[in-house]
Amino acid sequence: xxxxxxxxxxxxxxxxxxxxxxxxxxPKDCKQFMTRRDLLWLLAAGARAQQPAxxxxxxxxxxxxxxxxxxxxxxxxxxxxxLAGLRAPVIYGPEGRVDYIVESMGCGVAFFDYDNDxxxxxxxxxGTRREGPAPGATxxxxxxxxxxxxxxxxxxxxxxxxxxxxxxTIGDYNNDGFDDIFISQWGQNVLYRNNGNxxxxxxxxxxxxxxxxxxxxxxxxxxxxxxxxxxxxxxxxxxxxDFQSVPATGRNPKCNFLGVPVxxxxxxxQPERCMLYRNNGxxxxxxxxxxxxxxxxxxxxxLTAMAADFLGTGWPDIYVASDSTxxxxxxxxxxxxxxxxxxxxxxxxNEDGAEQSGMGLGLGDFDTDxxxxxxxxxxxxxxxxxxxxxxxxxxxxVTLRAGLGVETRYVSWGAGIQDFDNDGLPDLFWATGSVYxxxxxxxxxxxxxxxxxxxxxxGNGRFEELLSAAGPAIAESHCSRGVAFGDFDNDGDxxxxxxxxxxxxxxxxxxxxxxxxxxxxxxxxxxxxxxAIGATVIVTYGRRRQxxxxxxxxxxxxxxxxxxxxxxxxxxxxxxxxxxxxGLRESVKAVAADRLIAIREGEGVxxxxxxxxxxTAA
Amino acid sequence: MxxxxxxxxxxxxxxxxxxxxxxxRGDAAAHVGRxxxxxxxxxxxxxxxxxxxxxxxxxxxxVVRIQYATCLFATQRDEEARKQFEIERQRLGDRxxxxxxxxxxxxxxxxxxxxxxxxxxxxxxxxxxDAAFYLGVAxxxxxxxxxxxxxxxRAARNNPRDPQVHYRLGRVYSMAGRADDADREYQLYRDxxxxxxxxxxxxxxxxxALRRQPLAQARTVCQRIADPKDSxxxxxxxxxxxxxxxxxxxxxxxxxxxxxxxxxxxxxxxLGSSLFWLKRYREALPPLRKAASLNPQFFSTLxxxxxxxxxxxxxxxxxxxxERAHNLNPDDAQVASRLERLRAALKGKR
Lengths: 618, 350
Description:
By secondary structure, chain A is mainly β. Chain A is built from 7 helices and 42 strands.
């Protein structure tokens, strides 16, 4: 359709002229004409200023699906959460309704090895209920029993807490060899120091991380922005919100979805700014938001935050997925400050210049050209966006070219770019779930629980969606938010942990068949921060080069296994290039496939493990 | 959208070997009439179904097939749209309007070479002012930054108020390392985007004011929309006024709109309609004639035009117009009845 010379909202303006009772005589009273059906599309569908409910969505018609490739997909996902012992629901707001926006946003999950035994443990955040503490609601730490099951060790670990937890970032901020936990919340954030003995201590106050009043922390990530070997802390915020000043569902007639009263926001609420804390090296942090230029960026509705060397400069930048506002790319200026350049680098909006509801982020190299690409998820009636790294000019929105335009049905959250079938080509995954439980009762075509989405990489810059070919867990419907990727059973593939609203989490075990090889890389910093957060690894196998980065937040407010997993396809060995956060570059040649190798900065490979882990319980 | 479609039809049929198409015959006209009304309401899927039925009856009607193809395009049924446009290309040869849509389909299918081939000859066509934009996008996607830049610069000249053009241009400058030019375009993108946002907000407030406040008060709210250089905002303002019966207030912005955009069906149609309801029939006639020429299948416009001619005592001229309207919507009993009376009256005069 020829584009109007005006934006989509105004271009849609029409006033439908129903049949008038046109009299061939002059009408005695022009008010007798039939009421025009007032289809001011601009005002009904396009005007974000007058739509307090909901997030930005383009109302896209999905692209037609092509014929299936017919290629086999050698990964199969099964939800084994129940068998694994993950039975406690993640309480987040009331069931069956949402009165306030804070009850709808959910929280993150994490794969991390808190006890350094080489097996991934799980950390699942939780919310609460407005009426008061909900029985059984708490963040939970599950220790991996190494047999496909987990034990809830929350109490022993000192991590019992019930709040509106949102985001989690995991990293060794004091470089003592044990991963610590930072949780962003509506209210106050929390820093837990890992004591190294299976317990954690809340050190928020002594670390200087308490903030005045109530703020809604969301995306958070460790980052060594000044390359001093210490992990600093970046926090995004969503909206200015409190229960007293925002009307509950049903109190504001403008807050409705297809005529069904829903909660208000975020468009009717005030956006927020991000913050940056510098690690002083003594267990404390200093707020450097202003001196680092973080506060110069326009306020947005910030969600998932991710730090990585996106531009290959050797310095970490920060990307913040922002809801219904331009997403932010804080480009490291290498002098202790950042310049927000999302627009200049092609990451703020989509290819049409339209803002979207940015929620989840995935980082990977889908076209195996050695540069990091990005995946961002959005609201229903819109596509996820795939940004291809084009080097100096930043990123290019290749969503439609990649074939992702076929899927616009779901509100989409935690996302990842991971090679699930080890064919050497990273695939795409995201979890979904509505924000309006009330709507499906009136409009069943808008269900609250919706399936997962998986696109397999066809290798030519295009993807195809697998609706049922990747196992039963993909088609199962839940209302999900946070997603983390990792190999919890150490069998050489990528599994998925998912937060489900008011349900137990899902743990999708991946069973890979076929003959694809793989390689896992674990980095340990020495001059760099010990967690090696901010490092980039480029693996060359056959004619492909694949880049991955060690991140401290991705998915949706979540944390992945820091062991980088590379599917190698038919290649049985690979060459590695490591770009450490300190600036050091190292390379390792001819690493045999189907191994986990640990590389210590400046020392090369220090450990090689062959996986052949025990069979899981199911 | 209707205006551009009409232009496309003119481009397709106004020049070249084929003679002007006769209106869709018989029942086909009724389907076409419904389809055009559905298109007005942006119900393109339903409109496509009506056009398909019209084609089943009148398969050689090029205008109907083009309209059908355009609705398929609007609903992203690209394969079917391409098929229909290709049929017309076989019948009519390479026409600008056809190549415009086929080029855009190539763009959607990521066949940038083909898109460039079709859109390049249209780059400077004044009737297809956004062809330069899509050509620029095609060049950008094909990695031909220099040509992308030329096309997008032209697109920005053609549509300076379109934030999307400025965004794309900014991206090309960014990729070329021209940071200052990029920043300028990104600022324009932000400015025009903000301008649209504000206009949307004003539109909401105007609508609410017209519904709830006395006109004198509502006028103050509504006049904020008026931008004497932006035909679309002027049309919006005119439509808001006329939708709420404030026809006198609608006239001025619509008169300005037609000066700025002489090919805007909406502007001419709403202007004529407002003047009609003000009983200014002599003044209503030219805009309604123009609107009818731009969109000869729009039922409401034709009935208004016929009413205007009748009010001016020109029944002989009103008759064929009303007949066309009736063919487009034979279910409208009032029009059928009026037609019968008009015929009888004219017969009586002879």
